[in-house]
Structures are given as C-alpha cells and as structure tokens.
Specification:
Strand content: under 5%
Number of helices: 2
Helix content: over 70%
C-alpha cells in the first residue's frame, strides 16, 4: 500500500470521528431542551465537542503529513 493512500485512509477515519462528534453534539443540544435533562445535555455536548476536536486535529495532522 502506498504511503499517500495510507495517510488519506487515516484522514478518512478522522473525518468519521468528526462526523460522530457532530452528531453527538447535536443530540446533546436536543437533550438540553427539557429542564430535567439540562446537565445531561451539557455533558453529551461536551463529549461531542471533544470528539469533533479530536477528529479535526487528526485530519489536519494527516493532511499536513501528506503535504510534507
């Protein structure tokens, strides 16, 4: 397997983590509307934001390595 294909495969996995993080973030925003679940919604949004940030860093890192 070529190195560029491998790097793009890892970047694709980073995109998948980004999308999962975004979906979890949206779910947390939806959960936050009922008053009883406000803290649960915040926690879920925090997890979603973390996953999204990890995915972005992973994709940027892979693309940066691909450029070098």
């Amino acid at each position: 397997m070529e190195e560029s294909t491998l790097i793009l495969t890892y970047a694709g996995m980073g995109l998948a983590v980004m999308m999962i993080g975004f979906i979890v973030f949206l779910q947390g925003a939806i959960l936050e509307h009922p008053e009883q679940q406000r803290t649960l919604g915040r926690r879920v949004r925090t997890i979603g934001t973390g996953l999204f940030a990890i995915g972005v860093a992973y994709v940027v890192g892979c693309l940066f390595i691909a450029l070098i």
